[in-house]
Amino acid sequence: MTAQPEQLLENNLISQLVGLGYERIILREEKDVITNFKQQLEKHNQVSLSDAELNQILIYLNKGNTFERAKTLRSRIPYVNALGENKTIQLIDQKKWCKNEFQVANQISMKGNYDNRYDVTILINGLPLVQIELKRRGLELKEAFNQINRYQKHSYGTGFGLFQFIQLFVISNGVNTKYYCNGRVKDRSFKQTFFWTDITNELITNLADFADDFMNPCHLSKMITQYIVLNDTQKALMVLRPYQYYAVEAIINQVKTTHEYGYIWHTTGSGKTLTSFKAAQILTDIPEVHKVVFVVDRKDLDTQTAKEFNSFSKGSIDSTSDTKTLVKQLAGDRKLIVTTIQKLNNTISKSYYLKDMAGLTNQRIVFIFDECHRSQFGETHENIKNFFKGCQMFGFTGTPIFAENAGTNEYGKRTTQMLFGKPLHKYVITDAIKDGNVLRFAIEYIRTFKQKDQILDIEIEKIDEPEVMQSPIRQKAIVNHILQNHRLKTHNKEFTAMFCVSNSDAAVAYYKLFKKAKEKGLHDLKIATIFTYAANEEQKKNKDYKLYANDDALGMVAEDAGPYLSKYKREELDDFIDDYNKMFQSNYSTKDSTLFYQYYNDIAEKVKNQQIDILIVVNMFLTGFDSKTLNTLYVDKNLKHHGLIQAYSRTNRILNEVKSHGNIVCYRNLKSATDEAIELFANKDAIGEIIEPPFEALDAKLKEKYDELIAIVPTVDNVNQLQNEEEQAAFVKAFREVMRLINKMKQYGDFDFEYLPITEFDFDGYKSKYLDLYEANKGLTSGATPAHSILDDLDFELELIHRDEINVTYIMNLLIRLQSAPVDEKASQEKIIQDLLNSDIQLRSKKELIDKFMQKNLPFITNADDVMEVFDDFIQTERKSAMATMSAEEQLDSDKLEHIIGEYLFTNRQPLRDDIVGTMLVKPKLAERSNKIERITYKIYDFVNTFVSGFAGRA
After folding, report:
1. Number of other residues whose CB lies within 10 A of the CB of residue 473
2. d(CA 41, CA 54)
3. What angle do CA 205, 208, 210 make, to 5 degrees?
4. Between these two residues, 115 and 356, which has the higher pLDDT value?
5. Is residue 655 helix, strand or coil?
6. DSSP state of 782
């Protein structure tokens, strides 16, 4: 059989689950689910519940969102029995996770806004906790993902809302299977769905194999009770990925069975903080473990990690503000502590703390060291090991120290394995790229200087004499190159960039060049810089920071260790911070370490929030800093080994479809160093897996995908002749592949439509037809029940459509030209405007508006200089009219509606349901409320897209 029907897939899965120990049960509708829930609850708790007692429990359970219900699931549920006694019951056993009742049902029907029938449901103690959605082979997995979103939207809240207790979803088409956490639909992304693997990171994609491993009752219950984190800050559930699970299990097993050390090698960007938190959290529950101490090597990471840990579990830890506080915490009752290695070293090396610390010498303390490739190779490590004789040490690193990249100090060459023992689990960069957890790198090597009028080839070695590399002429050429290419690299500043340079002299020089160019009006970029102006007291006394005795000249990436800068450099830095203060109305300086530390933190936040376009750094931010919005690293610094991988990895965090890779622009010869680093931390054959192919290879791939497109629709007009949804879906998939490739290619300096197999004219034409299909199949504002279309489940990836260089102002300039154009050119210029309106996703929402202006207003404007002013008045009038129409059609309080729209624009958060209900002059019946809220929400979005987005600073 070439295509496995969904029913056969479902039947086979259920048979397999029964074989694994699930009880097969027939549940047709909610009343059956409730009856079964009562029976299973009684069985699990060994009690008998009356109908009145059950009703109390159901009412108690039916409140809160998915996050709050996840907390309820993990707590005991109160009720009052017939004798008036206060009792509680347990919904799931979290400590003995195998001691729960496991059932499987299929085709449960729930009626909410629409009738929905769910494929396969896993019930634990009668509660539906796992939903499995199946599609036949050959269909995109995202179709199952989108269908679950519809279920949640339309029927999960029905009745007593028991389906809102679902913790995990599983989606499969038989050959590909993924899992993910429940949560708010609007926050859910297909990028947060995960494949399961074995312990060696080999994918388990086949449904039958996945069921055997992941759906085993004990394992599934363990994942739900032990490996889902309730993030208090985001109010979201987070499930661990397989490599995180295996790492935690390995550490737990090591602690329970031996006193040996170990380390986890998980590549940068793979979520080591979540992994280490979960390991620490579980370790604190082991009675033999006295304390768990999570150790970082920088003050900023101390605060940052404490913040992240507390987001995973509110109030789980306090960060240690000073050594005295740390001593109190170590001597106190708190089992989980986060601190810096410097403060930890102080507690055992300062004589006045030793009395308080003496009782800990032989205690079973587990130390978890973050980024253990740094600061672990000298005196401090020995001090900790010698003082805490009963301790057990574990390290986390994305780039271990091997013999090949080890520095030399008074203890000789020391590797990560020499200090921590064997790796307990590995997940290297090639694994992460294969799984889609981090992006690949697109690396360009730029020639930057001439000799006797001949450009020297970047591949020539040993051209790094300071007089050449720090030449003002060369530095100016680099700044010019960055300014010419920055918008291209960052998708018109949708993303941000870092520029790492060799030393503070270079940072000063480059900052001044960018500032001078800005004063000349050559750019409008927000540039900031930060570098160490003095080593702090702890670092000066910590010998571990001098890892690379002979590598300072190479600009190795290690956190700043000094030496002190001259007074001149500090004054320069203060001048730059003054510029920053003026730009952001702040008050930072280098006058004391607190203000400088606050400056550091503020820069970190502003880079993450895209408020800084380019951050110039020497060593800071090149390790341990995560920003999904950063996609480009400019490099004028010699890097190698773990320093190179760490620096490059600032750019490769997953964000959206537009961010297809991390851009690395090298102004130095790092080709050999890059290949060597990849070979060291992956393998010698991994270069092609980690680095994006050259432009020529993408061009060849585009030719292949374009041929597939024109085989379906030879011309743009042929899209109109597609006979059915299957043909339309084939076009959508084919053109989507073309868009993805062009999105990547646009970030290369060689990009030019003139040399591509598809012309820009045809690309825009296909894009218009693509958008027509998208809009025809959405019907977002319709209150009627839509017929299901196979196009509904396709991901159109509209992020790839927007043309950053075209906006309302650009269209207005075309309208001005149209107004003053000769009569014989008006038709052609009007067509240009219409084509642009049709081909851009943001401008299409304004098409009707601009068309109306062109027909009703433009012909009567006699002076081209008046076009902007007349258009502004026109927009204001139309905006007020549209607001009044929406208020009248939906019977809404116009002032409250305007307030909601203002809040949405300010916070960029979806309007709350209660706020929308608050605008209604006539409250609808309960059964009609959800439909009306949904309709009004989409009308608000449509209003903003039409009358606000793109008009900032105009009307």
Report:
1. 11
2. 10
3. 50
4. 356
5. coil
6. -
Please state, as a whole number, how many other Cβ atoms lie within 10 Å of the Cβ of residue 211.
Answer: 23
- Measured at the alpha carbon of residue 816, what is the angle toward residues 811 and 821, in degrees to the nearest 5? 120
State the DSSP string of 514-540. HHHHHHTTS----EEEE--SS--HHHH
Contact present, 272 and 264 (Cβ < 8 Å) = yes
Contact 877, 857 (CB under 8 A): no
Residue 294 DSSP symbol: E
Residue 774's pLDDT is 79
Q: What is the DSSP secondary structure assignment for residue 566, as one 8-state letter?
A: P
Answer whether 709's CB lies under 8 Å from 448's CB.
Answer: no
pLDDT over 90 (residue 256):
yes
CA distance 920 to 472: 65
Gap between the Cα atoms of 416 and 681, Å rounded:
13
Virtual CA dihedral for 173, 174, 176, 180, nearest 10 degrees? 70
- For residues 547 and 376, give the distance between their C-alpha atoms in angstroms, rounded to a whole number: 9
Q: Give the distance between the most distant pair of CA atoms in the chain.
A: 100
Antiparallel, parallel or unpaired: β 454-455 and 450-451? antiparallel
Nearest CA to 845 out of 801, 813, 815 is that of 801
DSSP 713-777: -SSGGGGGG--SHHHHHHHHHHHHHHHHHHHHHTTSTT--GGGSSS-HHHHHHHHHHHHHHHHHT
Q: Cβ–Cβ contacts within 10 Å for residue 454, how many?
A: 7
Please state the rounded mean pLDDT for residues 282-305: 80
How far is C-alpha 106 from the geometric centre of its chain's CA atoms? Answer: 34
Return the exposure string of 15-26: e unless at least 16 CB atoms fall within 10 Å of the residue's CB, then b: ebbeebebeebe
SS3 content of the chain, % helix, strand, coil (to 5): 50, 15, 35
Evaluate whether 744 touches 804 at the Cβ level (below 8 Å): no
Residue 811 one-letter amino acid:
I
Is the CB of residue 493 less than 8 Å from the CB of residue 613? yes
Q: Which of 347, 338, 348, 343 is nearest to 301 (CA)?
A: 338
Residue-wise pLDDT tens digits, 713-760: 999 889 989 988 888 889 999 999 999 899 888 877 777 888 788 988
- Tell me the three-class secondary structure of 97-122, residue by residue: CCCCCEEEEEEEEEECCCEEEEEEEE
- To the nearest whole percent, how much of the chain has pLDDT over 70? 83
pLDDT band at 797 (very low <50, low <70, confident <90, very high): low
In sequence order, which residues have a C-beta less than 8 Å from that of residue 951 and are 6 or more positions away? 808, 875
Q: At what angle do helices 242-257 and 272-283 cross, to 10 degrees?
A: 30
Q: Are 607 and 599 in contact (CB under 8 A)?
A: no
Classified as helix, coil or strand, 51 is helix
Report the C-alpha gap between 119 and 134 in whole angstroms: 7
Give burial (CB, 10 Å; 0-12/13-18/19+) of 829. Answer: middle
Angle at 237 between CA 231 and CA 239, to 5 degrees: 110
The CA-CA-CA angle for residues 116, 117, 122, to 5°, reads 125
In 3D space, the residue among 431, 419, 256, 289 whose CA is nearest the CA of residue 366 turns out to be 289
Domains of the chain: 6-229 (3.90.1570.50), 242-434 (3.40.50.300), 441-678 (3.40.50.300), 695-800 (1.20.58.910), 808-947 (no CATH)
Distance from C-alpha of 350 to C-alpha of 816, rounded to nearest angstrom: 75
| pTM score of the predicted model | 0.73
Task: Please say whether the beta carbons of 436 and 657 come within 8 A.
Answer: no
> Would you call 534 exposed, middle or buried from its count of C-beta atoms within 10 A (0-12, 13-18, 19+)?
middle
Write out the H or E segment, with its range, that includes residue 265. strand 262-266
CA distances from residue 915 to 67, 71, 185, 705, 899 in whole angstroms, order as listed: 21, 25, 19, 47, 10
